Every structure is written in C-alpha cells, then in structure tokens.
Amino acid sequence: MTNRRNFIKKASLFSAGLIVLPEISFRSVPAKEIGLQLYTVRDQIQQDLKGTLEKVAEIGYRTIEAAGYDNGKFYGLEPAAFGSLVTSTGMKVLSSHTTAQLPSLDSSESDVWKKVAEDTAGTGARYLVYAYLTEDKRKSLDDYKRLAEKFNKAAEICKKSGLIFGYHNHDFEFEEMGGEIPYDVLLNNTDPQLVKMEIDLYWIIRAGKDPLEYFKKYPGRFELWHVKDMEPGKEKFFAEVGKGTIDFERIFARADEAGMKHIFVEQDRSRQDPFKSIRISFDYLNNASFVRTYAS
Predict the structure, then answer these.
(1) pTM listed for this prediction
(2) DSSP run (H or E) holding 35
C-alpha cells in the first residue's frame, strides 16, 4: 500500500513538473558530422544521382564533397538545384573539388575562377578545393612556387564569394625536388589565413610522411581531412576505414593542433560494393570515441 501511495505521489509531482530529472535524460547526443567525398560512388551517381544521395544519407552521412563540377553544373544540375537536391536528403554540400583553370597572376581577377567560385557558393558549399595537379603543372620547384602564388590569388577570389580555398594532396607532392619537398613549398608560400589544406591521410602516409609532423610544423592549416585506410602488403590498396593499417586514433588525437574542422570518407576504389564500403567506414568513425566532429 505504501509503495502504491509513493508511486501516486511521485506521478503527481512529475505531472506538475516539481521533480527535476537529471538534465542528461532530456539531452540528445549530437550526431557526428561525417562527410563523404562523392568520387567514392561516382559510378553509382552516373546511374542514379538522387537515389545514390539518398543511400548515402541513409547510412548516416551528414555532409558531402562534390567531385562532379563541369561547365557550370554539378552532376548535370545547376548549382542551386544540386544544393537543393542534397538538402532534400537531409545532408548539405560542404565542399567541392575542381581542377578548373587557376587564375592568372597578370590580372586582378580571373573570370574563369570567379565563375567557379560563384557556382560553388551557389550550392551552399563553404569550401572550394583544388583537387589535383596534372604532371605538366608540377615539373619543378619553380612550378610549385608559381602555383602557390596562384593559390593565393584563387583564395582571394574565393573569399569574395564567401568560400574558403583548399588544396588536396596526393603522394607526388612529397617527392623531394632540389633538396626541398614540394608540399612544404606550397605551405611556406601560401597565406595561412587564406589557403587551407585538405590533407589526404592515405596519400601522405603512402608517401612515407607522418601527418603529425606536418600538424606540428604548420598548425591550424589542415581544416579538411580525407579519411581513408590502407591495406597491408606491397600493393597498399585502399581499405575501408578501420580495416587497414593506419592508426587513426594517433592522428585524431592531434586534430586540434591540425585545425581540423571537417572530415570526409573517401575510398578511391573498393573490392566490394561501394555502399558496403562506405557503411563500414561510417560505422567505424561514428563509433570511435576519439572522433569528435559534430554538426553545427
């Protein structure tokens, strides 16, 4: 009987709002902001753009980085239409890759680059990343020094459109030239306030370099990360995150020093269905206690 009276009393107090339960009972845990570089599912996008984005969102990805800009459109859609399509799936466009012609140093503004920036901003993105240097653009250290100047110019144009400019590395930037490392040349000759690096963890490690050394030497420069893993063996094939040889806990422990703000899963090639691969990578990062990147 006493137990029954206590239950009724507590129920009444609860209804009246007089019992305050621990705040954590009502606080939802923020979802991790884990993004996907859409190059990973490029073949699937060619078949069904909307369906592919929906599957990516269903896995739990919150942001995307585009890799399909061409002739003013993203995957065949006008910038605003592409941004709206991504938003309709519950995700957002955070970044976009491009290899468009870099701005000329002889003029105050490049019409080509200005349009790229305006189109990218039109999707709702915050970053515009130069994705790859073709071999003809990187034959000497002087080439890299000129590229650094162009990156500064591109970043100024991006800023006018409300974007942050970044550069995405592969492994060739770490091959010594004339006693210097080209990646260091780019970092040393670009404005730290304007030019950020999208560090690809797979490629820098494949090149035999330690990303932590770069975080220490150039703190705050690495706002975007490509998170991908590497199989053991001579081939060093791409692996799902958490299934390879890279020690991500060690790297993420220095995320603040690096200046990391956003991460994207990318798997250039997969030995299985890419949707299975990106689900494995997402689950690993989402469950890893050392990954602390939350949606704003």
Answers:
(1) 0.89
(2) strand 34-37
Alpha carbon distance 223, 205 (integer Å): 18
CA-CA distance, 39 to 268, in Å (whole number)?
Answer: 7
Based on the number of CB atoms within 10 Å of its own CB, is 115 exposed (0-12), middle (13-18) or buried (19 or more)? middle
In a domain, 24, yes or no: no
Q: How many domains does the chain have?
A: 1
How confident is the model over 149-185, as pLDDT tens digits?
999 999 999 999 999 999 999 999 999 999 999 999 9
Q: Is the pLDDT score of 201 beyond 70?
A: yes
* 224-227 and 195-200 strand pairing: parallel
- 123 part of a folded domain: yes
Question: 264, 37 in Cβ contact below 8 A?
Answer: yes
Q: Alpha-carbon distance 87 to 15, whole Å?
A: 39
How many Å is the Cα radius of gyration of the chain? 23
Which token pair is 224? 């975007």
Give the domain range for residue 52.
31-287
- 233-250 exposure pattern, b = at least 16 Cβ within 10 A, e = fewer: eeeeebbbbbebebebee
CA distance 222 to 225: 7
255-270 burial: b if 16+ Cβ within 10 Å, else e: beebbbbbbbbbbeeb
**Looking at the domain assignment, is residue 16 inside a domain?**
no
What span, in angstroms and rounded, lies between the C-alpha atoms of 277 and 61? Answer: 13
Q: Does the residue 257 lie in any domain?
A: yes
- By C-alpha distance, which of 100, 25, 35 is closest to 264? 35
Domain CATH number, residue 144 = 3.20.20.150
